[in-house]
Amino acid sequence: MQVTPLIKDPTKPYAGNSSHQRFYKPYAVPGFDYFNLTAAVWALNLNQSCVSPRSSSNTSPCILYIAFCQNLDWLVLEPCKGSSVCQVADAANHSLGASSENPFASDDVPALQAKFFNGDPYPSASEVTCHLKTVVTFTCSRKAKWLVGGSTHTVKQAPWLRFIKFNANTCQMDIGFFFAGACKYPEQKEQVGAGTVVIIVFSISFFLYLVIGSLINVSQGRSGVEILPHHNFWQMLPTYIKEGFMFTFCRSSRRNSSDYSAI
Q: Are 119 and 96 spatial neighbours (Cβ–Cβ below 8 Å)?
C-alpha cells in the first residue's frame, strides 16, 4: 500500500493553530540525545499490527506516521490533524495519540520512551470504549543512526524497527526501535575553573605557612606575637601599604601640576 500525503509547501509559514509549534526541550530527559527524532516525521509501512475496526476480521496494510515534539497538521491527512501518531489505511484511519508537550521520558523503564495519549475512541475487547494511545520504546544500539535532512517537514522511513504490536484490550500500540541516542551518556559535572584552583591552592598554602611557621617558632621558645612567622613583616604591612599609596598618588599629582609660573 502506498499513501502519498498532501504536504503543504514547507517553505511557507504554517498558518494553522498554535498546536503546530514544536515542543522540543533540549535537556528534558538528561543523558539522552534524541534531537534527530524531532527533525522529521517517521513512517512505517505495515502489513499487520494495524488498528482495524472491531467489526472487521481482516487487517489491511497501513502506514503509520510518527512525529516527535510536533504534530501532523501539515500532512493534511484525516484524522492526522492535531495528532502526533496517525494511521492511514484503506480500511480505517485512526489518530493513535498526541502530545501537547515533550513526550519523552525515562522514569518508568531503563530506556528512552515517548508516550502519546488521547487518540481516537476505540471499542476495546471488553466492549468498553477507550482512547487509542501509543508508547514508543527506544533501545540502545550505537550503530542505529537515524539520519535526517534539513527540514522538519520531511517524511522518512523509520529504521531499526524491533517490534510493533497492538493490544486491543488496552487500546495501546507498542512500538520498539533501536536508536543510538538511547545510549545514555554520563552527565557532565561542573568543572572547576582555573581561578578557583588558584584561590584554593593559595588558601591551603597560606594556612600551612601559618601553622608550620608558628610550630617552628613555638619550638624555639617564642611567645606572644613572635609566634607568628615573619611577625615583623606582618606588623609593618599596613605601613608599607599606606606608604605605597602615598607615593603613587603624590607622584601622580606632581605630574599633573605645571612646572612653569604664570606670566
A: yes
Please count the other Cβ atoms lying within 10 Å of the Cβ belonging to residue 224: 7
- pLDDT tens for residues 241-263? 888 888 887 766 655 555 555 55
Domain boundaries, the chain: 18-182, 194-243
183, three cell numbers:
545510549
Half-sphere exposure of 229 (CA within 13 A, CB side): 12
**CB-based contacts of 184, cutoff 8 Å, min separation 6:** 31, 32, 106, 112, 140
188-227 pLDDT, tens digit per residue, is 566 678 888 899 999 999 899 889 989 998 888 888 888 8
Residue 126: all three cell numbers together: 471488553
C-alpha closest to that of 104 among 156, 66, 148? 66
Distance (Å, rounded) from C-alpha 218 to C-alpha 226?
9
Write b or e for each residue in 28-46: b if 16 or more Cβ atoms lie within 10 A of its Cβ, otherwise e.
bbeebbbeebbbbbbbbeb
Q: What is the pTM of this model?
A: 0.61
| pLDDT tens column, 148-199 | 866 666 888 999 999 999 888 889 999 999 999 888 776 556 667 888 889 9
Residues 6+ apart with CB under 8 A from 40: 148, 149, 151, 152, 154, 155, 156
Q: Which of 72, 13, 79 is nearest to 41 (CA)?
A: 72
Topology adopted by domain 18-182: Cation-dependent Mannose-6-phosphate Receptor; Chain A (2.70.130)
- Distance between CA 73 and CA 88 in Å, rounded? 14
Question: Which residues does residue 123 pair with via DSSP β-bridges, in sequence order?
Answer: 129
Q: Model confidence over 227-246: pLDDT tens digits?
A: 888 888 888 888 888 888 88
